[in-house]
Amino acid sequence: MNRIEQLSKISSIEQFDLCIIGGGATGAGIALDATLRGLKVLLIDKADFAGQTTSKSTKLIHGGVRYLEQAVKKLDWEQYKMVQKSLHERDTLIKNAPHLTRPLALLTPCYSWIEGIYLTIGLKLYEWIAGNHGIGASKWLSRKEALKTIPELKKENLTSAVLYYDGQLDDARYCLAIIQKAEALGATVLNYAEALRFEKDNEGKLTALTIKDNVSNNTLTVQAKVFINATGPFADHIRKMANTKLKPRMKVSRGAHIVLPTSLMKNETAILVPKTDDGRVLFIIPWQDHLLVGTTDEEDKLSENPDLEPDEIPYLLSYVNRYLEKDVTPEEITSGFAGQRPLLGKAEKSSDTKSLVRDHEVEIDKSSQLVSIMGGKWTTYRLMAKDTIDHVYETIWHKEPVLCTSEHQLLHGAEGYHFEDWQQLVSQYHVSPTIAQHLMKKYGSLAATVLSLAKNQSELKELIHPNHPFIQAEIVYAIQEEMAVTTQDVLNRRLGLGLRDAQAAKESESLVEAFLSPGKTFISHQNIEN
Length: 530
Description:
Layout: H1 3-12, E1 16-21, H2 25-36, E2 41-44, E3 60-61, H3 65-74, H4 77-96, E4 101-110, H5 113-130, E5 139-142, H6 143-149, E6 160-169, H7 171-184, E7 188-190, E8 193-200, E9 206-213, E10 219-229, H8 235-242, E11 250-261, E12 269-273, E13 282-287, E14 290-294, E15 298-299, H9 312-323, E16 335-344, E17 360-364, E18 371-375, H10 381-396, H11 422-429, H12 433-443, H13 447-452, H14 472-481, H15 487-494, H16 497-500, H17 502-516, H18 525-529
Parallel strand pairs: 1-2, 1-10, 2-7, 4-12, 10-18
Antiparallel strand pairs: 3-6, 4-6, 5-6, 8-9, 9-10, 11-14, 11-15, 11-16, 12-13, 13-14, 17-18
EC number: 1.1.5.3
Catalytic activity: a quinone + sn-glycerol 3-phosphate = dihydroxyacetone phosphate + a quinol
Organism: Arcicella aquatica
């Protein structure tokens, strides 16, 4: 999968059935769903795939413990249904890409017996709602069992804990795996392709879109029967481009995260802080040999490059220090990032983003027939895609929808995946177990394909940075097979190094730039195999 091939495909297709704007989780899901239904699909993104909200999540696949609490307290059937749907989808996401996901144990410390009883009942209800899609049984832990599970927990006033399970994912790579599967099945996909302006017919319906290739600065025009706006927080921009009379619908919620060394909590169990002083849920999560702490939930102004605010680091650290025995200082932070979540705002609702349900809505503009999918969350990306395509069939094409089959579609790298195959990589390619296991978790059954690049170029087995298991062959693979264009594409999204260790990523930039330099040639894995 490379940009030259994709550009060639675009020029060879007279009209697409669907042109999807936005290469995050939702747009990727729509592209895969539509391609599985036999539609001719084009997916574009202004920058890199998964470049915004999708890669800046808390890396959780979950039903929403907080939403369940609100559903019970307010007797809110919509909140309950959202939790139910999300728990079903949690199971689907894990099964469809086992190399990029895992069940995650989460421990909630309790500091009174009443709190312990309350949380045990709530999490048992959470488990009951999951039903056959459950991934682990919740249980009450004594103080001794809690400290055995997470020895670093603050002991003072601890009475007990409750353990339950949700899922964890490598969000940027999961999105890429969806796109790669869609492309392998026939979709055309292009990153760094910016939507500039629509063309309309005499009735005002969208017929074509002018796109700017932000790599070459060339423009091209594509024809499509339907245009789908899947740009998340930026949905209002595309809606206005299609119809200037449309009123804004989106609210933006800001989620900040910090990353800490794994030495601060040496286990695979996360901590759920069930309620912060300002009414939020916060997590301290083992993640890729580090600890991920987040998230905040504040209304924010839309931005393409949100940075951590000065007050967010002490806020997040204060909860780490409230729940861990050892005090953690800002100097120990290895990285941090902030993302913006798309929330559907309505005039009659409060402006408090914590109170907005993160469900989704498919809007079809009667004038232009632009389809906009708005709201939602990572865990329900596949349902959002299904609803969007179903609406296109029913409302625009006035047809019975072709059956959606994405629920049982293994993603790129999941076919034939067995984690134990890392041992074969060690013996066949003479790499360390650490590197082999890392590659299995990033590329699944394609890990050997990455290593095959080093067959006649042994230097590609060398580490990118001495403190991390990434090897130079991954840079080549990201450029050749995953449409990486910039150093940030490679370091932040294809590898994820920048999000866990900002200093190591900075020290690796010159190496990545050398691989990206014009005229740099590689021996491709296809040539090796041939």
